[in-house]
């Protein structure tokens, strides 16, 4: 395991370099350069589209199924609560501090190390490693833009901080803009129809709304009113009130079905901003789930969004770090978590290869 121990050291060094290099969404060109250089220094040919980098295993065989390893290298903006320099990697008390260390730099370098470990080995599947951009904003220049460049993919392992448990389901997201129309009038007289009061009925409905179906794994859909705007003058009855809904949708619904159920129950005119970010769920009898069971991994349904929402084939989400630390001030990952993450990914693939061999023989 000497090679693996060396890769763990290299992964930590790479993560420090990534932390030191600002990589806000749509501005990840410098971290893309670092990732590309890391692979090419090892003789691994890379491909690039925008700020997305990908590579295939050396013995790629088009007759074999292909497994995707994916994590992202963009970050959110550092929040104002930071007491440390977000772009200065600091090791202290077994932790590595820095913006993107936990979300999702630790996962990314762990998957990259795993890919390098298996790069020249004979396997019953192909591997493609994609370090993607724009995940934090679900941008169209991220993983979605790369999928058309890849062969047919059988399964994806998406690296996100999950405390090394496996998310086998993930809620999708639909943002809806709502408009309630009234009639303008003078506030001093009994004139007009107040759009704010009209919207109140909707808001009460939303507060108490229960979707008809529930997911066995993810539970109910969740809808929240998060923004409201109306009126421009104190003495004018507003003729329009707008509000925004954040809808977290489980695998029990398509986004279109969830939208229709809300539309039926609300008086506002509703317009979804996008129907791209779908929920995901992987079948219990899938070889990846069987692998997780064999290894005794914890499995759960995730309420938070990732690039899984844009991957139109089976996927799981797993990685070192803790989602509760994502986007927080003085973000960090434990060094031991990162090392354990690499070991787990290597073992996960080893067991998956074993199950895959048996099912194809």
UniProtKB/TrEMBL annotation:
PANTHER family: ACETYLORNITHINE DEACETYLASE, N-ACETYL-L-CITRULLINE DEACETYLASE. Pfam families: M20_dimer, Peptidase_M20. Its cofactor is Zn(2+). This is Acetylornithine deacetylase. GO terms for molecular function: acetylornithine deacetylase activity; metal ion binding. The lineage of its organism: Bacteria, Pseudomonadati, Bacteroidota, Cytophagia, Cytophagales. It comes from the Bacteria. Residues 168-270 form the Peptidase M20 dimerisation domain. It comes from Cyclobacterium qasimii M12-11B. Its EC number is 3.5.1.16. CDD domains: M20_ArgE_DapE-like. Keywords: Cobalt, Hydrolase, Metal-binding, Zinc. GO terms for biological process: L-arginine biosynthetic process. It is an enzyme of class 3 (hydrolase). InterPro entries: ArgE/DapE_CS (IPR001261), Bact_exopeptidase_dim_dom (IPR036264), Peptidase_M20 (IPR002933), Peptidase_M20_dimer (IPR011650), Peptidase_M20A (IPR050072).
